[in-house]
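Reminder to self: tokens first, then the designed residues, so the page reads top to bottom the way the pipeline ran.
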């Protein structure tokens, strides 16, 4: 057809729409009319498409990972929550360190073995001429709670004892949760059945002329007495913190050049029984009851309970642990659930429990918090654990919503609800939980990102170059993967 013939279509379109016609339309004839009538719906559809552009196809998971360009390894799995069917997976998966996503498995293990309403009890026992502060493994006991226990003890009456002892044998003792971490990291303290303030102490300092005033306190919301069993001093040294040994007292040196005018931070406690005994002695003295210097005992003597304090129900402790990712809470409830004599044997008991729940795959747990690099699990196995026992024990209701809020802000919001547990170590960033996918319902997912080469030289260190940028990129990738599943599945 020539250019002129194309122009002849216009009168037919005008006549079809009721516009004025001319001789050109009369000469077009039946063939032209039918052609114009056929083109009208196409034109109308074309106009509609111009108004509403076709949606861009949603890239697959492999494309999303490739576009992110994150250094290292990225593995993932998504399961249907009802059937356990694999909806998307990175295929052949190796077992990777779970980091703090392991706490989600510790949560369901403890809830199953101990029960949601289980409470940890801290007791004061009078055995002859000795008063014993007996820890019950309560991971939430703080100075304010210990003060309430001192008030009950004083109200019960009785004379000052000849001896005052602290017992922490309800859980096995360990000088730190994970070997290889820097000594000053507050999330890696000592562990025993006597836990106070997450076995951390608050160090504050202020410059006073040529010297520094140091305050070491057992800080809580209402009570913050001095911790006499722990001391700190400023020194001319290269490392910011130096731990001089497990006294008593415990002693720290802090680089004078790093202190500035004033500041504060938490430090880990290595002698938790003496720490708790020291604080309890101070609180009792303030109420008129004088106790001798505390001593640590290995065996709990028979006697009468004269005061006691119960923790909140386990389900609340678990919710807080998942929200704030407290390592010592995970270790305490995991050890209480297993009754094992060490973290490694307790981790192995938890892995065996999961196998008994029908969770198949490579399960190796060196602890309950995920702080150790020796723990291993694949994303597919993690997703299976969250699908079976996780759903049965109500884990989804205990996990945090908006898990990207801290790192991505509003950019981390998703079009549908998500509840998940993060897991972050230097050059390790994981996420596992539940997402509500439109048109499908709830799915269970697990994503593991790791850069093993850089991780090897960064374990247990603070402020590692490049780790903040890498971690943010990993979290952005996790967000985009979930958004892709929500759009595709």
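Designed residues (489 positions):
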């Amino acid at each position: 057809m020539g250019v002129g013939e194309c122009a002849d279509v216009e009168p037919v379109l005008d006549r079809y729409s009721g516009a004025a016609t001319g001789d050109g339309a009369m000469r077009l004839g039946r063939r032209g009319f039918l052609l114009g009538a056929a083109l009208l719906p196409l034109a109308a559809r074309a106009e509609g498409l111009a108004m509403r552009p076709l949606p861009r196809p949603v890239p697959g998971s492999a494309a999303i990972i490739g576009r992110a360009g994150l250094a290292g390894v990225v593995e993932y799995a998504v399961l249907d929550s009802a059937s356990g069917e694999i909806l998307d997976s990175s295929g052949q998966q190796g077992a990777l360190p779970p980091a703090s996503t392991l706490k989600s498995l510790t949560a369901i293990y403890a809830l199953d073995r101990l029960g949601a309403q289980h409470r940890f009890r801290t007791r004061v026992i009078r055995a002859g001429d000795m008063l014993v502060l007996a820890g019950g493994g309560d991971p939430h006991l703080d100075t304010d709670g210990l003060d309430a226990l001192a008030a009950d003890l004083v109200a019960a009456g009785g004379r000052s004892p000849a001896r005052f002892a602290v017992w922490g044998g309800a859980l096995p003792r360990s000088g730190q949760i994970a070997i290889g971490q820097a000594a000053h990291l507050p999330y890696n303290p000592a562990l025993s059945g006597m836990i106070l303030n997450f076995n951390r102490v608050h160090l504050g300092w202020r410059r006073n002329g040529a010297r520094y005033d140091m305050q070491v306190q057992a800080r809580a919301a209402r009570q913050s007495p001095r911790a006499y069993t722990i001391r700190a001093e400023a020194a001319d040294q290269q490392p910011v913190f130096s731990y001089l040994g497990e006294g008593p007292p415990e002693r720290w040196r802090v680089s004078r050049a790093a202190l500035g005018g004033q500041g504060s931070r938490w430090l880990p406690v290595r002698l938790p029984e003496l720490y708790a005994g020291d604080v309890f002695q101070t609180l009792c003295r303030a109420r008129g009851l004088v106790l001798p210097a505390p001593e640590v005992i290995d065996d709990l003597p028979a006697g009468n309970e004269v005061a006691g304090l119960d923790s909140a129900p386990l389900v609340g402790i678990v919710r807080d642990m998942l929200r704030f990712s407290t390592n010592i809470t995970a270790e305490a409830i995991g050890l209480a659930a297993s009754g094992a004599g060490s973290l490694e044997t307790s981790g192995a008991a938890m892995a065996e429990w999961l196998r008994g729940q029908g969770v198949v795959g490579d399960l190796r747990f060196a602890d309950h918090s995920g702080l150790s690099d020796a723990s291993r699990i694949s994303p597919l196995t993690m997703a299976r654990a969250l699908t079976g026992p996780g759903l049965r024990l109500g884990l989804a209701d205990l996990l945090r919503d908006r898990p990207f809020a801290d790192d991505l802000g509003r950019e981390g919001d998703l079009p549908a609800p998500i509840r998940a547990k993060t897991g972050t170590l230097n050059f390790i960033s994981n996420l596992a939980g539940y997402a509500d996918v439109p048109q499908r319902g709830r799915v269970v997912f697990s994503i593991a990102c790791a850069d093993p080469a850089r991780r090897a030289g960064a374990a247990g260190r603070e402020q590692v170059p490049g780790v903040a940028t890498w971690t943010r990129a990993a979290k952005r990738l996790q967000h985009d993967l979930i958004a892709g599943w929500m759009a595709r599945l």
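The chain has three domains: 3-51, 61-116+315-322+341-488, 121-310.
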